[in-house]
């Protein structure tokens, strides 16, 4: 197996010549697909939090969270360049593709990380900035450098990094966290294993080729299927909790329940997937739906909050 030596990834054996990468390559380093979901959930947390934030400061906060998420992605690609070069899903990323030098990606990620945390702290809230700094550290160091290559629970524990954004958005408004913000965190935290293990099922060969201990490769496909079902059920249940706490209305609860039911049904389809099924269509369908599910839950939460606020203002006027 051909891999990139980490001395090269660190830039220790590089001649430090600048690459000819374009803006698109640097944008790809930010993992824009992942970043878009992170930004959206952070925006939802900021909008549904009790209190008020100046729109300009709110925009700065979201921009900083987006840049911080991008920094995490760049640092992840820098460290994982050796396995990215082997896996078919990631072989054409900027570093293994030869368009960006490892040392450039490292510097780019570090600069973005410092910039995003500093600006968020100076302009909005140092507590929120601290959460953002911890999130970047958790994803780049705890997950990427430690958990990902050492334990099949990498996604379960590492999923916390992707679950912090709504809590950071909440903290930008309130200056702290609350039970409701923890509920938003838990929705994403519990969603992550079911989402990512569905992907891991039909990318087992990729992960096996680089020695990353993903759950299907270590515990086997049957065990992974069962765990996907368990996490799907837990996610669906927790997604309804905002109705119980008063953060959202019964309308949100009903829609979240339906979305969650479909999520669970997708997990059951994965569980029933025949052994040796090369196409793994149910797993691919669940992976696709899981992205829609999380987006839909937070969209409904935002819409519910906006409608409730409007009705409250209208009632006050009347």
If you had to describe this structure to a student in words, what would you say it looks like?
With 318 residues, the protein is mostly helical. The protein has 2 domains: 21-176, Tetracycline Repressor, domain 2 (Orthogonal Bundle), CATH 1.10.357; 178-318, Four Helix Bundle (Hemerythrin (Met), subunit A), CATH 1.20.120. The chain contains 17 helices and no strands. The chain is flat.
Any descriptors?
318 residues; mainly alpha; Tetracycline Repressor, domain 2; Four Helix Bundle (Hemerythrin (Met), subunit A); 17 helices
Question: What's the helix and strand layout?
Answer:
Elements: H1 6-9, H2 23-29, H3 32-48, H4 55-79, H5 81-84, H6 102-123, H7 126-146, H8 154-158, H9 160-163, H10 165-174, H11 179-202, H12 204-210, H13 215-218, H14 221-238, H15 241-245, H16 250-271, H17 281-317
Q: Could you give a short account of the major beta sheet?
A: none
Order of helices and strands: HHHHHHHHHHHHHHHHH
Mean pLDDT: 90
Contiguous uncertain segments of 5+ residues: 1-17
Distance between the termini: 72 Å
What would you call the structural class? Answer: mainly alpha
Quick one: CATH superfamily of the largest domain?
UbiA prenyltransferase
Shape: flat
Count every helix, treating DSSP H or I runs of 4 or more residues as helices: 17
| Annotated CATH topology of the largest domain | Tetracycline Repressor, domain 2
CATH architecture of the largest domain: Orthogonal Bundle
> What gyration radius follows from the Cα positions, in whole Å?
20 Å
